[in-house]
Amino acid sequence: MIDLSSSTPFAEGGNRKCFIHPTQSDRCLKVIHPGLLEKIIKNKPWYKKFRTKDSFDDNLREQEAYKQKALIANDSEVWKHIAKWYGMVETNIGMASETELIKNNEKIAETLESYLFANGLTDEIKIAINQFHKWLRDNLILTKNLIPHNLVIKIENNEIIIKIIDGLGSQAFIPLPKYSSFFAKRYVERRIELMSSRINWDLSGRKGNWK
Ligand SMILES: Nc1ncnc2c1ncn2[C@@H]1O[C@H](COP(=O)(O)OP(=O)(O)OP(=O)(O)O)[C@@H](O)[C@H]1O
Ligand SMILES: [Mg+2]
């Protein structure tokens, strides 16, 4: 079991605390906030009552998402824009997902959100976003809504590569995109459209509804 008692998270989101793996500094361990699943279950609306506790666990949902059809290919192009997945491991504060920690020269990569707030839509980020969208389309990668704080910026050969660190999977209620490339294309196109509207919303002072 991995002992995280002397580790401090380097970041946290609404669902998970993120730690640098104590013995492998290029890996990230994510643990669900203690008590969060119980709180979600207690407050869930009637129409979600049929869902099990595990179905709200972001680590388990992510584990399933990494098994999606598009990612079965062990081809570097398919994995170019995603943090690698190493599985689930036990820690003293609960099960953790173990993934690649995205870094630039030993510094943890910044999110697309922080890049956009600091620099705006520069030419180089527009190129990186277009390249990322092309990759989503070419490989039909299923993601939830692509929010800039769930994407990070990796610099490779002086070029920005956007990497997904959270949000793989599908949020379609009926899982048609999983089984049909016709629906997958439509689904991916909608995620791309929504990613652009989310970026515009972020950059224009977050007024109204971003969708
Ligand atoms: N593999 C990684 N490499 C670099 N930074 C990461 C990585 N994973 C997470 N982070 C950083 O930690 C933050 C929180 O991680 P993550 O988005 O996985 O948590 P979460 O609780 O699932 O988020 P949400 O609030 O979107 O549900 C990210 O916004 C990012 O800054
Ligand atoms: Mg997140």
Briefly, what is this?
This protein is an alpha+beta fold.
Topology of helices and strands:
Layout: E1 11-12, E2 16-20, E3 27-32, H1 36-43, H2 58-65, H3 76-79, E4 85-91, E5 94-100, E6 103-104, E7 107-108, H4 112-119, H5 123-139, E8 151-156, E9 159-164, H6 176-179, H7 181-203
Antiparallel strand pairs: 1-2, 2-3, 3-5, 4-5, 6-7, 8-9
The structure holds adenosine-5'-triphosphate and magnesium ion.
Characterization of the model:
With 211 residues, the protein is α+β, with helices and mostly antiparallel strands. It has one domain. It has 7 helices and 9 strands. The chain has helices at residues 36-43, 58-65, 76-79, 112-119, 123-139, 176-179, 181-203, and strands spanning 11-12, 16-20, 27-32, 85-91, 94-100, 103-104, 107-108, 151-156, 159-164. The strands form 3 sheets. The protein has a 5-stranded antiparallel sheet with strand order 1-2-3-5-4, with helices on one face. The model has no long low-confidence stretch (mean pLDDT 93). It binds adenosine-5'-triphosphate and magnesium ion. The site of adenosine-5'-triphosphate has 22 residues, from β2, β3 and β5.
